[in-house]
Amino acid sequence: MAGVSKSTVSRVLNDTPGVSPKARQLVKTAIEQTGYQPNRAARSLVTRATGSIGLVVSEAHARIFSDPFFASMVRGATEVVRPLGIHLVLMLAEDRRAREQLLDYLRHGHVDGVLFISTHAADPLPRILVAERLPAVLSARPVGRLPISYVDVDSVAGAGLAVDHLVERGRRRIATIAGPQDMPAGQDRLRGWEEALAAHGLPHGPDLVAYGDFARGSGARAMEELLGRGVPFDGLFVASDLMALDALAVLREHQLRVPQDVAVVGFDDSDAATQARPALTTVRQPVEEMAKALTLTLLDRIGDPDAPITSRIFPPKLIQRAST
Amino acid sequence: MAGVSKSTVSRVLNDTPGVSPKARQLVKTAIEQTGYQPNRAARSLVTRATGSIGLVVSEAHARIFSDPFFASMVRGATEVVRPLGIHLVLMLAEDRRAREQLLDYLRHGHVDGVLFISTHAADPLPRILVAERLPAVLSARPVGRLPISYVDVDSVAGAGLAVDHLVERGRRRIATIAGPQDMPAGQDRLRGWEEALAAHGLPHGPDLVAYGDFARGSGARAMEELLGRGVPFDGLFVASDLMALDALAVLREHQLRVPQDVAVVGFDDSDAATQARPALTTVRQPVEEMAKALTLTLLDRIGDPDAPITSRIFPPKLIQRAST
DNA sequence: GGAACGGTTGGGACCGTTCCCAGCCGTACC
DNA sequence: GGTACGGCTGGGAACGGTCCCAACCGTTCC
Q1: How far is A68 from chain B (nearest CA, A)?
Q2: Contact positions of strand C to protein Cβ (< 7 A)
Q3: Other residues' Cβ atoms within 10 Å of the Cβ of residue A34
Q4: Which residues of chain B form beta strands (DSSP E)?
Q5: Cross-strand partners of A88
Q6: What share of chain B is helix, strand, coil (3-state, %, to 5)?
Q7: CB pairs A-B closer than 8 Å
Q8: What is the pTM assigned to this prediction?
């Protein structure tokens, strides 16, 4: 239609240099007019790439799908991938059996690379992916040294923001509901709390700490535990919004007013934070942006398997609402 | 390797009749030994099929990803699709812009069919999919007549089960927190409540009804409204577990004991139901099974575009726990 | 004026399947 | 014994791209 050979069309499609501007324009308008779209299958056949990337979610479904973190992750990745015509293929690895199947699947070259979403420290998959030389990136800092790119939020700094804010609001005894200590995010947020309090010369002993697992439900237990100890506190930093919601409910049950009696800061800035009563002051992590960066990193890596390992740490931001 | 031509291998792979048992066996052992896997791209190139089906989620992300319903849906679909080597491709259509893009994408034959997950009545996508003759199935009854297959749970019967159970437990004034009335599920659960109460000769006036949107948060507002009216009730049917969780919290705040003062029944049997305090009696819908049936229906339809339209309605089941 | 060269271009092999078609072989029938 | 037939098999075109290679053209240089 453009009066040129398929070779030239191919060159235009792939932005290969060595096409005259005139021919290039000719082809482009023809494409525009016909709504032509290259055939994925034919292309894959020769390039040996699939045009799909896997979104591997290695976590109990119930957990993942009840955490808005995942929603934002998916949205960010989708946004990067869609205009490129790349498919985002869902892969769930809930238990060991599913993991084996998944690995088999990945090894057979069904996808060009893997976005690995999991926060679990003990997860063996990242290590295996690296060993198999499959292009992969992680959604959080891996445990131990592992030559793999990742993005993460600066959890230590985030916890620091929360503590600083509470101190600014005049609080002097600041407790925390920490996350699980087998996950980097859990560790870092606790460490950030400790370090910030130490810097202010305020107490930060173990009697001010209770543990949850980031998810809904665990925050209530931790809150009850803290209150049960009888140790006074007027500020509370909770390592996830979902647990903070629990904490708010338990505080209300105990006739404690937020923020008058206890000022509360969460972490994540999920939708839950705005819906909470009172609306939750929280540390925002830019999940969607992080997902975009993660996806771009993977695409880089697929394009060049020897691309350098990078880790990108995003700064958190304090969002003030009614709970402080 | 098996000493036969590629034609014969192809026949074995596709279970085409007209291969001698001997040759078939020869090929099969060769495949076993080499771990051979057919090349998707080459196959797609000639069959004009992609070996992928789209999982279209037409809903606000925050909503979908905070509802465990979606998790089960994905799990069920994955289970059907994985052993067949079919990819489940995630597609999100949150707003109008995303919907347009998505449609364009679907029209270009990137997937062989669509699993459409949405509960929204006003969603224009199902109608368009039908008009475009794209193989598609719905995860819930569509509004209006539409020649499209779907699966659903019998919501009317489910609400009936809940009411019957509450009556059995001696309750005579049974209120309800209903779902949104622009969704079939919302309408049906309300209707089931009304009809069952009418059958028992018990009151079922509008003063016993408050409305939510199925999601967390809306249940609290509805519960407050019901209590605020001063109309007495000793039983409560809530159209979703998430709203029931809210209701439990509000009842507790008002010093009402569950189940002694108010017996509560939810709907869904999500994980939330078991985590609730007290554990929630609820109407279970077999979401995972429904997802499997849905996926199989789609695969049928892809195999034969003129397959008859089917709708499969699953029976709900009452799960008794501590809240009644 | 002819050769060398660089920028463009088209031709054609190739990727790994499916599927049509022709051919082979053994059997049944006349 | 020859022929028709049916079950099974292999050959080869086709799918729609990518990419290597050769050819073409206009310039520049000797």
Answers
A1: 6
A2: 7-12, 14-20
A3: 10
A4: 52-57, 87-92, 113-117, 136-138, 149-153, 174-178, 209-211, 235-238, 263-268, 281-284, 311-314, 317-319
A5: A53
A6: 45, 15, 35
A7: 112
A8: 0.84
Residue by residue, DSSP assigns A20-83 as -HHHHHHHHHHHHHHT----HHHHHHHH---SEEEEEE-S-HHHHTT-HHHHHHHHHHHHHHGG
Structure confidence at residue B109 as a pLDDT band (50, 70, 90):
confident
Q: Which residues of B touch A49 (CB under 8 A)?
A: none
Sheet holding B52-57, edge to edge: A311-314, A149-153, A136-138, A113-117, A52-57, A87-92, B87-92, B52-57, B113-117, B136-138, B149-153, B311-314
Q: Min CA distance, A268 vs chain B (Å)? A: 14
* Distance CA A5 to C1' D23 in A: 14
Give yes or no for A216 touching B (CB within 8 A).
yes
B208-266 confidence digits (pLDDT tens)? 999 999 988 899 999 999 999 999 999 999 999 999 999 998 998 899 999 999 999 99
Q: Residue A236 forms beta bridges with which residues? A: A175, A264
> What gap in Å lies between CA A130 and CA A137, rounded to an integer?
10
Query: Which two tokens mark B290?
Result: 């429904």
CA distances from B207 to A173, A259, B70, B203, B210 (A): 47, 36, 32, 10, 8
Pair type for strands A52-57 and A113-117: parallel
Rounded Cα gap, residues A208 and A226, in angstroms:
7
Type of residue at B106: L
* Residue B62 pLDDT level (bands cut at 50, 70, 90): low
Q: Look-up: residue for tokens 């001010």?
A: A208
Tokens of A286: 């830019």
Helix axes B218-229, B241-253, angle to 10 degrees: 50
Whole-number mean pLDDT of chain B? 90
A11 CB closer than 7 A to any strand C atom = yes
Mean pLDDT split into 10-residue runs, chain A, 324 residues: 85 86 88 87 90 86 71 88 85 82 83 86 85 91 88 97 98 97 93 98 97 90 96 97 93 93 95 84 95 95 89 96 96
Dihedral pair phi/psi, residue B69, rounded to 5°: -50, -45
